[in-house]
Amino acid sequence: MEYSQQVDCGLRPGAVLVLRGKTMNVLVIGSGAREHALCWKLRQSKRVRGLFCAPGNPGTSGLAKNVQIPVDDIEGLVAFAQERQIDLTIVGPELPLSLGVVDAFQARGLKIFGPSRAAAQLESSKAFAKEIMGAAKVRTARAEIFTDRRATEAYVAAQPLPLVMKADGLASGKGVVVCHSKEEVAEGLRHLFAVIKTDRVIVEEFLHGREASFIVATDGTRVVPLAASHDYKRLLDANQGPNTGGMGSVSPTPVLDEGMQEKALQDVIAPVLSEMRKRGTKFQGFLYAGLMVSPAGKISVLEFNARLGDPETQVIMRRMKGDLCDLLAALADPSGSAPLPLITWSEEAAVCVVLASAGYPESPVAGDEITGLELVEMVPGAIVFHAGTEIAGKSQSSRANVRQGSGEVTGQVVTNGGRVLSVTAVGGSVSSAAAQAYKVCDIIQFKGRQLRRDIGR
Ligand code: AMP
Ligand code: GLY
Question: Where do the domains of the chain lie?
Answer without folding.
Answer: 2-6+210-345, 24-113, 142-205, 349-443
